[in-house]
Amino acid sequence: MKRKTQRMYFLMLGGLALAAGTALMLTAFEDSIVFFYSPTEIQQQLIEPGERIRIGGLVAEGSVNADGENVSFTVTDTVESLDITYQGILPDLFREGQGIVAEGYLLASGVFQASDVLAKHDENYMPPEVAEAIKAAGEWRGDASADAQSVAAEQEHKP
Fold this sequence. Notes:
The protein is built from four helices and seven strands; from the N terminus they run H-E-H-E-E-E-E-E-E-H-H. The protein is of the alpha+beta class. It has helices at 3-32, 39-44, 128-136, 144-157, and strands at 35-37, 52-59, 65-67, 70-76, 81-87, 99-106, 112-119. The chain has a five-stranded mixed barrel. It is elongated and about 80 Å long.
């Protein structure tokens, strides 16, 4: 075998090994990616039942029903709503009217089965994805108290 032919085989094997490594890495990475959707996006897009996703929005007033560790509630982005079921202990800050992010999957019935529920940790905080979804829906009312505080702070710093 000529030296040039050996080099070609070496480059081809190296290319195949690199392609296989990249394919394995992308496959592993794809399994760990979880996309975020708002209730409106869930209604507009075809999401396969069983696909792991995150959903965010506000817990609808009067929608929380707890039976031991089984909890059902509705999340809304003020345009569309989605029923969520969860089994476990909810975060202490979970309550109606607050922004949450839930991770889980859609059931064939259209109900979202959450495996994790994250509640906001601060009175003025809303998950950015939830705020963007509400803004995109055109229902953003803004935080008037935060706006007033920032205006007051700017006026204090002016000479």
